[in-house]
Design a protein that fits this description.
The complex is a heterodimer of chains A (279) and B (410).
Chain A: H1 2-13, H2 21-39, H3 48-51, H4 54-62, H5 68-79, H6 82-99, H7 109-117, H8 127-138, H9 144-174, H10 209-228, H11 236-255, H12 261-266, H13 275-278
Helix pairs in contact in A: 1-2, 10-11
Chain B: E1 19-23, E2 29-33, H1 46-61, H2 64-86, H3 89-112, H4 120-142, H5 144-166, H6 173-196, H7 204-226, H8 231-234, H9 238-248, H10 256-263, H11 273-286, H12 291-296, H13 301-306, H14 320-344, H15 349-358, H16 367-374, H17 378-402
Antiparallel strand pairs in B: 1-2
The chains are: A mainly alpha (279), B mainly alpha (410).
């Protein structure tokens, strides 16, 4: 019996494939015994983190991409860990298997994959992306839309209504009512008011420095227009708009409760250098 | 043939020799790999690995255009991997999107581990396999009954491959199917006790396949002693033994014509009918009328009930002589295992891994396959073979001394 055992070992190592069933089974048995002996006292499964294995190193091993020293380390790990060895052999067979298979990608799956995979920035980086997401998340709730429309309507109509009320009060003042609640000096008589008032258009007014500066720029633009009119090929519409803006600015400055004393005294724009000259 | 494949397999890499210039979001041109793989070339050319690495780096850095291009390149290979493991259809698509989402998770954490030393296609295939196996393990811990069908689909190719390697190549297909079914039964029994014993350490795939290997070893051990040649037959010629094995173990009728067909190709020269007839005659003189006739008889349980259970069913238990032989064989096997274990303690890792790879199959794999698994050139495998043969001869000599053999025939 023992002699036969040694013969079987010798035959196995001789790499001679024997098709006879009895010999084949003997080979299977001896292979099992030798494999069991070679497994020996090996350690149990190791944590992937400590073994630094994972797909990265395994794929590098299978692609022959590891340097010698690192390959030796991986080989040692495989030799002493049956689980890792089983996984490696399975991975090699898996790669061989899919080499020969190429099922067609279902229609639409690619687009879904791109949508799933595409980069989306964090809120700190691009807040508008998240704002868009937020908008998409709540806009489909159709019940909110009437409320939104009502809110917008109120926001738009409120200045109009207020200006109408304001005009009504001004009208009462012009009619002789002694109402003077403004801290600013009241405008002069009716000949100084803008003819636009009769149409009901409210003139935006502000005492803020920004708006005043803008008004100054408009005034300067109006002055500058006269200088550049003959030399610069300004478009007709643009020129008309500038003219309208200048005229309106002059009217507004005349009617402006925040206007400076000097400008209100003579009813003309203060003498300022052209914008180009200021720069 | 895959549409992307041109003269090679798809997994030779969507990294390619050609590189495509891709216009990034910032308008600068980038040299990213095109989607056309070419013939398998190992090791990976540095240019390709660099272009793959630059693409992955761009994706990780948050370049949306790079991400889109990456997905264009990776979709087909990933789909192949997913369908191999999970099948197609809706489940396959869900698994595919799960893999894609997992690649993106944690700030493309899984892609950050790619260092360009492997082909990106290889890396992605193994990552996809890892992701899906983790999902499978999670499902098994939650609802094993529902997860079993997925488990079977995921692991069936691996288990069948192991079965076919452990048994001789001429083993009947039905025998291999039986072995596969038996392993599945072992995995299912006790409410999937063996699978559920996975504690999360190491990879789930490695754990399951190691369990399967252990079960297979038990199967081979149980099956082989029953297939032992009787001493009287073992003393006969090789042809006589083959005729005995064909009739007693493989169920071939003891007819000359059938045996001629059965044994065709097993010898250097096919035996003629007269030789087989003489072998049958010799076997008839040394063994009792053979088992095939007894095994072929099928007995209906209904018939047994109707006739009062008068039919005798052969007892499959070994005879007292078989018991003695089994005990002796087990003693020798244990001696061999102990000798190998002791000698292997000082065996270099590469030689040890080589022998483990060789003995993982009944018929040794090719040097090329071993080289692939060990990540070394084929020449290195031949050197390992020479060294390990010397080592195995020494082990066999030690076993011979231990068992007091008169001489060794190695």
């Amino acid at each position: 019996m023992a002699e036969r055992l040694c013969q079987e070992v010798a035959q196995f190592l001789a790499d001679r494939v024997d098709d006879q069933t009895a010999r084949g089974l003997a080979r299977a048995r001896i292979a099992v015994s030798l494999a069991e002996g070679l497994d020996g006292e090996v350690g149990g499964p190791r944590d992937r983190a400590t073994a630094a294995e994972g797909p990265g190193r395994l794929s590098a091993l299978l692609d022959h991409g590891l340097p010698q020293s690192e390959r030796d380390a991986v080989v040692a790990a495989l030799a002493h860990d049956a689980m890792r060895r089983a996984e490696a052999s399975s991975a090699a067979a898996f790669l061989d298997g899919i080499n020969n298979a190429c099922p067609p990608l279902p229609a639409g799956l690619m687009a879904r994959a791109v949508d799933t995979f595409e980069y989306r920035a964090s809120p700190k980086q691009v807040p508008t992306v998240c704002l868009g997401q937020w908008s998409r998340s709540w806009l489909p709730r159709w019940g909110l839309r009437p409320s939104l429309a009502a809110l917008v309507l109120v926001a738009v109509l409120t200045p109009v209504v207020l200006s109408l009320i304001w005009d009504e009060r001004n009208a009462s003042v012009r009619d002789g009512g002694p109402i003077a609640r403004s801290l600013a000096p009241l405008p002069g008589k009716g000949e100084e008011t803008s003819p636009d008032r009769s149409i009901g258009k409210p003139a935006a007014r502000s005492c803020g420095p920004t708006v005043k500066a803008a008004q100054d720029d408009q005034l300067a633009g109006g002055t500058h227009k006269a200088e550049t009119d003959a030399t610069e090929p300004v478009g007709g519409e643009m020129r008309k708009a500038e003219e309208r803006g200048a005229a309106h600015s002059l009217d507004a400055s005349a009617d402006d409760p925040c206007r400076t004393q000097s400008s209100s005294e003579d009813g003309r724009a203060p003498a300022r250098p052209p914008a180009g000259a200021r720069n | 043939m895959c549409p992307q494949s041109v003269g090679g397999n798809m997994w030779s890499g969507f990294p390619s020799v050609r590189t495509g210039a891709h216009q990034g979001t910032t308008g600068r041109a980038k040299a990213w790999p095109a989607t056309v793989p070419l013939a398998e070339v190992r090791p990976l050319p540095p240019a390709d690995s660099q272009s793959e690495l630059s693409l992955v780096s761009a994706v990780v850095a948050g370049d949306a255009a790079a991400a889109a291009h990456f997905m264009e390149c990776a979709s087909q290979p990933l789909w192949s991997a997913v369908t191999r493991l999970e099948g197609g259809g809706a489940e396959g698509e869900a698994a595919f999107l799960h893999v894609v989402a997992s690649l993106k998770a944690d700030g493309y954490g899984r892609l950050k581990a790619f260092d360009g030393r492997a082909r990106l296609s290889t890396y992605l295939a193994l990552v996809a396999r890892d992701i899906l196996s983790e999902r499978l393990a999670r499902r098994f811990s939650e609802a094993p009954d529902e997860a079993w069908s997925r488990f079977a689909r995921f692991f069936e190719p691996d288990i069948r491959r192991r079965v076919s390697r452990r048994f001789p190549r001429d083993t009947a297909r039905s025998t291999q199917d039986d072995a596969y079914q038996e392993i599945c039964v072992k995995l299912i029994e006790d409410n999937y006790r063996r699978i559920r014993a996975y504690g999360g350490r190491g990879s789930f795939i490695g754990y399951v396949l190691t369990t399967v290997d252990r079960l297979l070893i038990d199967l081979v051990r149980c099956d082989s002693p029953r297939r032992r040649l009787p001493a009287a037959v073992a003393r006969l010629s090789v042809l006589d033994q083959a005729v005995y094995a064909a009739t007693a173990w493989e169920g071939c009728p003891a007819e000359v014509e059938r045996l001629v067909a059965r044994l065709r190709g097993r010898f250097e020269r096919d035996p003629d009918p007269a030789e087989i007839g003489r072998a049958l005659a010799r076997l008839a003189g040394v063994v009792r009328p053979e088992l095939p006739a007894q095994r072929a008889e099928s007995v209906s349980l209904e018939t047994m009930v109707e006739e009062g259970g008068g039919l005798a069913i052969a007892d499959p238990a070994p005879t007292p002589e078989d018991h003695l032989l089994l005990a002796e064989e087990e003693r020798h096997r244990a001696a061999l295992v102990a000798a190998v274990r002791a000698a292997a303690a000082d065996l270099p890792a590469a030689e040890r891994l080589y022998l483990q790879t060789v003995f993982a199959a009944c018929d040794p794999p090719s040097a090329r396959d071993i080289a692939k698994l060990m990540g070394c050139p084929v020449e290195e495998v031949y050197r390992l073979k020479q060294r390990t043969q010397r080592w195995m001869k020494k082990v066999a000599a030690d076993v011979g001394k231990q068992l007091r053999l008169p001489r060794l025939r190695i």
